[in-house]
Amino acid sequence: MLSLVIRRLIEMVVTLWIVATCIFFLLRLVPGGPFDSEKSWHPEIQAAIEEKYGLHLPLKDQYLNWIGGVAHGDLKESFQYQGQDVTELILVSLPYSLIVGFGALILSIVMGVILGVLSAWKKDTWIDFTSSFIAISGVSLPPYLIATVLILFFSVKWQLLPVALVEGPSSYVLPIITLGIRPAATIARLVRAGLLEILSRDFIRTARSMGVSPFKILYKHALKNALIPVLTILGPLTAAILTGSFVIEYVFQIPGVGKHFVTSIINRDYPVTMGITLLYGVFLLVANFITDIAYTWADPRIKLT
Amino acid sequence: MKKFGILSKISISFLLIMGALAILAPQVTRYTYDEQNIMERLETSSAKHFMGTDVLGRDLYSRIIYGARLSLTVGVLTALVSLIIGLTLGAISGYIGGWVDGVIMRVTDIFQIFPMVLIAILLLMLLGKGVTGIITAIALTSWATPARLVRGLVMQAKELPYVESARAIGTSHFIILFRHIIPNLWGPIIVALSFQIPNNIMAESFLSFLGLGLQPPYASWGTLASDGFRAIQTYPHLIVFPGAALFITLLAFNFLGDGLRDWLDPKQSRVDIG
Questions:
Q1: Is this prediction's pTM over 0.90?
Q2: Contact with chain B for residue A276, Cβ under 8 A
Q3: CATH number of residue A211's parent domain
Q4: Minimal CA separation from B55 to chain A, in Å
Q5: In the predicted model, is pLDDT for residue B80 greater than 90?
Q6: Residues B272, A94, B138, B197: is their CA dihedral positive or negative?
Q7: How many domains in chain A?
Q8: Are B67 and B242 in contact (CB under 8 A)?
Q9: Residue B274 — very low, low, confident or very high, per pLDDT cuts 50/70/90?
């Protein structure tokens, strides 16, 4: 187990390095520089700025500079926000994103499992059709449309919750719901399919014939097995929530990492874009690793190699 | 074999009608997508403008129909391209195995674990925000899931007796893979395609919504929703109609995909997420 963890850690570092290198050169290929503007600056000023941020160096040196910094945990200074380290920027904005992200994760798992269990348990009744319909709608709704519907009703019509910006805990309610619905729908469909499959197995029939109550069969025997597919999508789920966070933070004006990411790309703020990409990379790789571990824990027949 | 459900039939009819409207856009609309009439701006539904007009007095219904052209083209085309890429890489990976499989799968990993929007945004900055740019960006970022699917299927298929028989009579690997194995996988591939299309339509609308996709005066469902979102408090019809068009179309594709899966490929269960 320990050697596996070590090997996976090394693999992660290599993957991150490849990603870092790709993103560095990809960004430089993009037309337009960080300090190009409508009005042309005096060449000397332009040169001075470029020198300050090391942009006058050959690309190779810039790359070595940056990757060396990353290796020491230094993500360099933002171009856009003067004097602010990217690390600092991330530390300030990450809590907002984490609250929304974790909220959505918990909401999606709770809602997904409840909907999935209900529709499998009451298969082919109106409960099943309703929750299946909710689930398939959730998959078909782009997050910004969910946001629109929620804002229209909760903020504009009934004026219960703020439209945007973070002004206390109530500001997180709509973003969390918006971000959580899609993954909840996916989980509900997985749980339903998994549970239906398990409930048709022989050991369930045996338990039933021995007079075990339906609720106990569901709770003690079927659910644990049906939840395995949910564990296994933890990785893609994290990716989906990260992706969703771009739009959610943009729509609700939350000053989180996703919003900075989108702005930094538009402004050619290379250090911020690269720093946040690496942050996402770490999140995703760790989530995938946990997923793999969860696999073996939930189903001992699977062996990691 | 399960019957092809009623929901799937409704869905496929709806999609065919939508497709026909999109193709016949100039015939079924009274205005073009960029025809402005400043005297009639921000009107709600009326006999003249069935879905109202936008901030520049453009007819919303016409814009939605022309938007269907772009959104559906982008969705279908990118799904086909990504499926071809995924099919080729997945088939090679699964059939050859060994280090080839290793390399292809690590690349697939990177494309699968990274939020596709992240890569798509970077590609869009490189390629420009036109139709070509967005098609390339979405196609290049959505082949990982089909590649993985096809790899698994090919790995199963190559152990089957018919492949061994083909080998025994001296058929080449190339012929076995592309003439025997892949044509046998059309069921799951069609199912994958029917899920890929709505995902890619959504990806386009998502990028356009962030202002990184198609630019005005082009109308796609994403740009329409994005314009509508800015006026959400004052003129909700601007987001309700394009949003509904997008939602119902995606819903139809998903119902169709579910129906096709039950019909063609009952054992397969697939994770489709973000």
A1: no
A2: no
A3: 1.10.3720.10
A4: 19
A5: yes
A6: positive
A7: 1
A8: yes
A9: very low
